[in-house]
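Protein data:
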Amino acid sequence: MLWMPLTFATVLLLILVISFRSRAVVFCQYLETMTGIRLQPSDVRRVFSQSGQNGVRELFLDLIIREDLKEGPMVPDEEESLAN
């Protein structure tokens, strides 16, 4: 009967480890889905271990800005500017 709580605790620990390991993968999938920017989970882990959450946030913003600059300036349509 003593093995039940130990088994339960082991399963919970395993779930916890898996959830922490998958955060970088989920972030990369989200980033690619929302912006089209492809990033490796190992890069996210490296930045997180070096700079923490703020470092990952800065990486994300830097990638978004670079992708936006690739597209160039937006030129409004004449019809839209005349309507305003």
Notes: Residues 38 and 81 are 35 Å apart (CA to CA). The first helix runs from residue 3 to 21. The chain has a mean pLDDT of 84. The chain is about 80% helix and 0% strand.
